[in-house]
Amino acid sequence: MSPEQTDVLIIGAGPAGLAAALAAASSTARIVLLDDNPLAGGQIWRDGPQAELPEQARSLRERVLGHPNVRHCPGTRVIASAGPNTLLVEDAERGWQIRYDKLILCTGARELLLPFPGWTLPGVTGAGGLQALIKAGLPVRDQALVIAGSGPLLLASAATARHNGARIVRIAEQAARGAVAGFAAQLPRWPHKLLQSFSLFDRQYRTGTHVLAALGSDRLEGVRLSQQGNIVEVACDRLACGFGLIPNSQLGQALGCALEQQALAVDGWQATSVAGVYAAGECSGFGGSELALVEGAIAGHAAVGEHPAAQALWTRRARWQGFARALNRAFALNPALKALATADTLVCRCEDVAYAELSGHVGWREAKLASRCGMGACQGRVCGAAVQHLFGWQPSAPRPPFSPARIETLLCLEDISS
Amino acid sequence: MPELILDGRPLRVPDGTSVAAALALGGDGCARTSVSGQRRAPLCGMGICQECRVNIDGRRRLACQTLCRDGMHVETRP
Ligand SMILES: Cc1cc2nc3c(=O)[nH]c(=O)nc-3n(C[C@H](O)[C@H](O)[C@H](O)COP(=O)(O)OP(=O)(O)OC[C@H]3O[C@@H](n4cnc5c(N)ncnc54)[C@H](O)[C@@H]3O)c2cc1C
Ligand code: FES
Predict the structure, then answer these.
(1) A113-243 has CATH 3.40.50.720 classification
(2) Inter-chain CB proximity A122 and B41 less than 8 Å
(3) For residue A73, what are the contacts with CB-CB under 8 A and spacing of at least 6?
(4) By mean pLDDT, which of A98-102, A197-201, A207-211, A212-216 is the weakest?
(5) Where is the FAD/NAD(P)-binding domain (chain A) (predicted)?
(6) How many domains, chain B?
(7) Which residue range is the domain that position B71 belongs to?
(8) Which of A141, A183, A341, A405 would disulfide-bridge A355, Cβ 3.0–4.6 Å?
(9) Rounded CA gap, A132 and B63, in Å?
């Protein structure tokens, strides 16, 4: 089967990918917009039976998906690189190749999930993870929730949970009070964000507080917290715990793009170190949806050669980069979080590898070969980031298949090479 | 309102519900059994962790990125 041809291929249909598609579509370029979720919108605009999308999201989504130059491929993931400017992709029905002239990576960010005793119990999720599950219909009415970890996402997740009938018994922010207060004091510089944060603020919010263990035998029953120096136990039905966001840079890394502080390194045009490959939004550094939108638009314009239109957006980008810097400073992680896992805490949830099996090794590669940590279905997306935090080991670039694929899809690679 | 079969039992869910949400609506919320025999439930909610993988109509799929459809057979046990 010959590959599908397109001028611009965009991976990820969150704010960055949607904005990139709209910007590129103002030319005559043909665009393919691919995302592994069933619906477009990415993280912040995840749609579902229990989600409420802002008007801005609806109208952007309609304009992009209704555009005659844009082909949207939902529920589709990237499996492998299949030669120059070509990716092998798969949806629920089939696998096929897409050949592009320009590629824009808008793969977003994922949560940093750190291992602690009991974190594998059913009832424990990520913080943004719980929000995503609720939007897609997970029932939480009348359940008692503890939300823990770090960053503004804890408040956003709490707001979604409460809106759907949950009782929030504690929000545990690991950052110290002074850091969070300093950040809040800066919010008036970004007026739109000010409104967003204050409507999110909550009586159960505690700074300088982090999880020590999830308690329960077959399922979560409670949480032990270190709360401003004291140890407290709180009964709950769910614990949603995430320690901020880390860029989804693996696909770019596998294509040879250079990294800068774990994110895809980009220049003023959002171009990566690989010719013809751009990156925008949170895969090129955490900064929230406004930054993702403006970076996406710059990448979209630049990819179709409209440099003046791209450059006109630089000032707006600089403003939201300032917000991102303030955010990252305020919610820097407390070193005490490196000591949460005990010898028998599972670090790799795919292969059930405990902390003790890893701690003697000198690096990621050696630990992987000896223990199978990171060699399971998630391909180190969860444990690789965790060991980087715990031991400082740099995860290697992922190898294909980038996500578990069907044999029939992998055979599409053979077709072309033989 | 699609009706699916979850571990042999029929379950009707609102339109647009993910299979991950259906696991909690119709069962104990768990998706799979780990290599050391622990039951596991969806963790990341966004297609990263693979804890939510279930068998849907004979294929291994991520429950958090699959919408419920009428007549779908979902199995959480090997
Ligand atoms: C779980 C979660 C919840 C969040 N909730 C909020 C919130 O409520 N409020 C807020 O202000 N911010 C929230 N954020 C922060 C949020 O990420 C940004 O504000 C914004 O969504 C970033 O936009 P983006 O386009 O860069 O990435 P994203 O919105 O993350 O979009 C990236 C998209 O690419 C897809 N993708 C990634 N890799 C591949 C691949 N290889 N193949 C195919 N598709 C791929 C992803 O599934 C996703 O749909 C959340 C973040 C996370 C991780
Ligand atoms: S819950 Fe993590 S992949 Fe589905």
Answers:
(1) no
(2) yes
(3) A32, A33, A34, A35, A89, A91
(4) A197-201
(5) 7-292
(6) 1
(7) 3-75
(8) A341
(9) 12
The answer to whether domain A4-110+246-327 and domain A113-243 are alike in fold is yes
**pLDDT by residue (tens digit) across A116-163?**
999 999 999 999 999 999 999 999 999 999 999 999 899 999 999 999
Structure tokens, B69: 């459809």
- Please tell me the residue having the least CA distance from ligand 1 atom 10: A44
A296: enclosing H helix or E strand: helix A288-303
Closest CA to A46 of A108, A118, A122: A108
B38, B43, B72, B76, best to mutate vs chain A, most A CBs in 10 Å? B43
Contact A103, A276 (CB under 8 A): yes
Looking at residue A398, what is its pLDDT? 82
Supply the CATH number for residue B59's domain.
3.10.20.30
Locate the domains of chain A by residue range: 4-110+246-327, 113-243, 341-418
The architecture of the domain spanning A4-110+246-327 is: 3-Layer(bba) Sandwich (3.50)
pLDDT at A188 over 90: no
